[in-house]
Amino acid sequence: MSISMSFPDPWPDVPIAHNVVLSASPPSPIRPTQVQSYPAVSSPAASINTANSTIKMGEKKTRTLLDRKNRFNKDGRDHVMPSAYRNLAVVIIGEFCGTFMFLLLSFIGTQAAVNNNDPSNPDAVLAPFSLMYIAASFGAAITVNVWIFYRVTGGMFNPAVTLGLVLVGAVKPLRGLLIFPTQIVAGIAAAAVTDALLPGPLGVANKLNNNTSISRGLFIEMFLTAQLVLTVYFLAVEKHRSTYLAPIGIGIAIFIAHICGTNFTGTGINPARSFGPAVVTSFTGYQWIYWLGPFLGALLAFVLYTLLKWLDYRTANPGQDDTGDLEQGGHQHHHVNGAEEKRHTINSDVGTSSDQYTLNNPHSPPNTARDSSALGDGIHGPMSPALPVSPTHATHGELRSTAQV
């Protein structure tokens, strides 16, 4: 039997039932075995151990995912080769492949232009169309290969450029001595492969025009090389918002050098380019100008670059990389399409990691990771200019992330 009754709620703000059911049935017996349990209170040490275990499990899971994504290049501590030997292998392989592909494509384009210039007279002055064809071949080939190997070794492909980078401290001298013979061997290999692939005699060797003296040829080579090395200095070594476009500027410098010098000296400006075809065909009595001229050009560019740096050239035309938006206190506050550059650093007992997130925008400020000058440190070289880590270049407006663990 049950009796139901209702009454008004004296405390309307308290969520209780308005209907109470009184039951005449006897209450259920109390079970002495039922004991209410409460969660155990863990000690601070146990909480810290649990947190550390969670961090380590998360790190292990992250490393596992990274290894799955890049199973050919696992963490350096687990790699079969020590890091020093791996870096040497990267330098040798990268510079050889880059120099070889650059010169191979350039030689093939040059051979096609020479064969179609004047078949009856191989020594004839190049027609404007043939001249443009050769210049475009060298300019496009250097652009694409520098862009490919930008983050590997820096994409020097030229002993004169390597000398210029050693002089400014962007490449270490010992590394420069290792890169130099690699580029020379790659030039010989490119000339030999071109000779084997294409019909007819190899016609890409550098030689002076009949009206060009040896002294004139020497200075032509010097000034054209100085222009190239200055381009590398101010577009790749110096950090600014358009540093990532350095390969295009370098390609244009090579293009204009061949437009100006090919009908007079054949445009060497690169000892590896001049020496390779000479080994495959024959040496001229003035082969030395294609070595001395480019090296003098690198020295000339170094002197001018050092003078401008000593005079602090940035003060003459300031604000080239300023977005024009200043915060209080005089500090620049950079905006990239409404998004700010975000930098996040995490320190834990397991290790130290640094994540940098940046919008790859031509109006964005230079990345500080990219600003470290070290075209020869680590496995990254000049036009990358040697970063502790090589930034992952994304497309315009795309978020990119580089991490050091």
Automatic annotation (TrEMBL):
Topology in the lipid bilayer: Multi-pass membrane protein
Biased composition (Polar residues): 347-371
Catalytic activity: H2O(in) = H2O(out)
TM stretches of this protein: 87-109, 129-150, 177-198, 218-237, 244-268, 288-308
Database matches in Pfam families: MIP (PF00230)
Keyword ATP-binding annotated: no
Domain of life of the organism encoding this protein: Eukaryota
GO terms for MF: water channel activity
Keywords carried by this UniProt record: Membrane, Repeat, Transmembrane, Transmembrane helix, Transport
GO CC aspect terms: plasma membrane
Compositionally biased intervals (Basic and acidic residues): 337-346
Stretches the record annotates as Disordered: 321-405
Subcellular location: Membrane
Keyword Transferase tagged: no
Family annotation (PANTHER family): AQUAPORIN TRANSPORTER, MIP17260P
Family: Belongs to the MIP/aquaporin (TC 1.A.8) family.
Protein name (record): Aquaporin-1
Gene: AQY1
